[in-house]
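Q: Is it fine to ask for two folds in a single conversation?
A: Yes, each is treated on its own. Send the first.
Q: Here.
A: Result:
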Amino acid sequence: MSNKNKNNRLHNLATSCLFLTIIILSLSFGYSLKKNTEDALNKDIKISVLINEVGEIKQNLDEKDAALSDMYSKMSLNHNQISIVSRRLEEANKELIQANQMISNQLKEKETIISDLAITNQKLQKELSIQPPDPNIENVLVVGHNAKLTDTIMLISANPNNQKINIISIPRDLYYNGRKINELYAKYGIYELQKAIAKITGLTADKYVIFNFDSFIDLIDILGGVEIDVEKKIVDNAYPGPNNTYTTVTFNPGHYTMNGSTALKYARSRKSTSDFDRAIRQQQVISAVKQSIEKLNILARLDFATRIFAKLQANISTNISLFEGLSYLQQYHNYQISRGNVISTANFLYQSKNSLGQYILLPKGKSFATIKEFVSNLINI
């Protein structure tokens, strides 16, 4: 074989090997490229999936964040409202506690007052004893009233054993059985007032005389007036006048012949002095009436006595007949009158207030026993 042919074969072999190498490299590169492409595509798909998942997660997070923001706003609003309501509740609770405390204190005060008064009344009911009436002693209850309340309560006791007439005044503010004694006649009648006076004084007054201002004036005017000695000056700037007005009443010391109207002012005035001083003046006027009756010698003038009785009947209520009254005049005209006997804070009573805050008078020692003893000694001495 020639060298030329040998070289051609070598050249062809080398070319074939080169071509084969190129093919192998191409196939290898193609395979790698395909694999890389597939890997890239898979990664892109995974990335897309991840992006979608991240998007969904972000969307969910955004939604939750919005929900949380809305919830926080509502919670913040509710918190403010709750704070306001809480403060108002605290304020209301404090006010309620204060009101309850105030009511509790007031109730305790009233309960104490009511309890004290109840105990007092119970003790009075247990301790009160009424003396059996002495058939020889005549007791008359005298009641003066204006409108609904009694203004004057007097017990007149005539004892033939010592030939004395004792006038005893009971203050209108005396507290008895849960009310002032001057309310009894208007609410329950004369019988209940008689029973109360009996339990307070120990004396039973079967007879009574109830008069108003008009009958008081008429009686004194019919008798021609009464003789009164005024011991100390009286100036009352608030004496009740007509149509809810007030006027000034003045009495200087000295001797007076008073008509009915003047005597009423003298007996009724109390603003410049006291209710107890007024009671003393009322007793003085009653004593002066007896003296005027005796001066007129009514026992010898039955026609005059009958006219007086008839005129006074319209404004006087009594269970004493005309002839009983005349017999009293005949039997007692020489009796000594003991006046100035007033149950008061100077002897047996003390001032207090009831559950309504009203001024009342209660017996010292929470018992009428000392009053009964005083009355018993008074009428029998």
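Q: Second one now.
A: Result:
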Amino acid sequence: MNRGSNVVDVGEDVALEVLFDRLQRQPELVAQPKSSRLPLHDITPENFEKLVVRLASAEPGAKLKARRYGKSGATQSGLDVQRLDPDSSRFACYEAKRVIDIRRGTLTRWVEGFLSGKHAANACSFYLCTTYAVSEETNLADEWSQCEKLLLARQIHPHLWDRVALEDLLRNHWPIVLELYGETVANGFCVPAARPLPDPQASMFAAREETHYGQSVNLYNRSIACSIYLPGGVDRNLSAALSFARADISGISMALSARELVGWSQWRHHADASMDRPYAIAHGTRKGAYLLMGSRVRLTLEEAEVADLDWILECAWHKIHSACQAQVTAWRSLGFEPIEHYPQAIGLLSIRPWFWQRMLDFARAHDVGLGDGPWHMFDAAPGCLKVYSDSDDQRFDRGYHAILYAHVEGTIWLGAPGDVVVGWRPADIGAPCSVRGQWDARYTHDWLLEEMIPEVLRWMGHSSAVQRQSKWWQWQWLRTRTRTRTRTRTRTRTRTGVALPSVAEIAWSRARVEVTSSAPEASNEALFEYVHMLQSHATCQRSDVPLSSACMRNVLDCIDCTLPFASLPTESYLRGNLGLQGEEDLSRSIRRKAADMASIVHYPAMDFALRALIEVLRYAPDLPASSRGHILQLLKPIRDRSDEDILCGLFSR
């Protein structure tokens, strides 16, 4: 031990160098070397003073000063030791009291004497050190409890190092017991010291490296490695695993679910450095440490390791977003959810089960082998709908365009009651999607709603076979009509007077991204519907991933440029949604809010801002086309973020 470095101030009566001298071997032999007790009551006064100093200086870099009161070696002598606390710049005070007996009132007298002394004002803690077993006598233990209250009232943490506490401390100090009682006693009394862990390796992985092969991506930096499996082909699976270079956690792999991987990486991409990470929270007791919060794993990381994890997630985001975007772009499937329990298929429509059966009947009646009409484009098969052309024509090329199955709760429909979901997946994974060849998800969805289903309804109305069964299928429709999906439309009637249901009453889209019939800038109604769609997303979005302040400023600019054309009955709704107070002009208040916008915003605030924009558009029926185009351009970043959120939701399962 480097004793000289510990000296801050040497008392006039005792020098710390003397107290750090080697302990003298106790002359009394210990009868039972394996005993759980040490004969501390027989320790010499000099050894007891040295013992207290050794224990007080156990922390690395401890700085001490000491003063003795009374004659060394006397049973009533005392030693005061002070240790500087670097965190608070106050002192931990130790009083060594080697006494033969302690009577009731002695503890109170010692504590009150300390509190009335000059050191109490600068003390953060007080250690009363004695070889007497205070905690084993009830009356003395009760007295010490009262002493603790006196110390705590002065914001001084109390500690009692009596014989019992000293023995517990010495179990982990084999070298001290060795000096006092010898190796045999030290080996029998002390807890066996665990082999020290090797120093964590500062750099086991590459400094910063990225490798990409097929659907596998590997990211490395000095402390963390990440292996990512990306979506590709018909495979929508997304997963990752983290490995660590630090020696005490090397060999541990932490699996990340798709929800964790997408959520963490998207947050890292959009958040700034001032925000608290959702995946790494500050450690409650260790300064500079963080808890990595996985769904099934908790790991303690250092600050530098968390910074390396930030880099991993930022790089992972670009890889993940590109792979997911490539798949939904190739299939045009953005906004279509995978079917539950059968994620290989994408749900396009929900259809009444009886009508799905009629669609299969229509396909059988229009098999390519039964005619050459424009609707003879099916390869009839039980349980599925195969759209097929046997030759090239003006509209379609030869081959399969779509193979569709109906699902109920993720299983192929086998006649069970309830609505069925029409599932789509590529008929040929190796072939690109096109309107002439293999159809993509969006084209198949639109073709079903706009062409095939209306044609099946007309076929049902004009088919004599169906007319004979009209009461049956009409009863099925009425019985299963339990809720309204869209606004009611006028039903057509056949020549026999039987009312046919409308398309909206038997089938409805499962797309989360609406495709309007006209461009948003085409009319005020189309723009109003477009903004309402963005506001609905902001209302339903539960992500903690922030938005940039530019998105909010753009919405405020949209409101400001619409105000001159709006005749608002009152400004209170706008001011309430935007958090504007005071009597300042509304337009000037909006511009001031945009100028003072924080660096990030969250979806609840965006929700209220879009509601305010909807309110202004409602009272601006004569908004010029140039303003509509300008508003649409300002809203593009918000639409892009909305599409990004939907994309993340599709692959976070």
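Q: Anything structural to flag on that second result?
A: Two points. The longest strand covers residues 342-351. The chain is about 40% helix and 20% strand.
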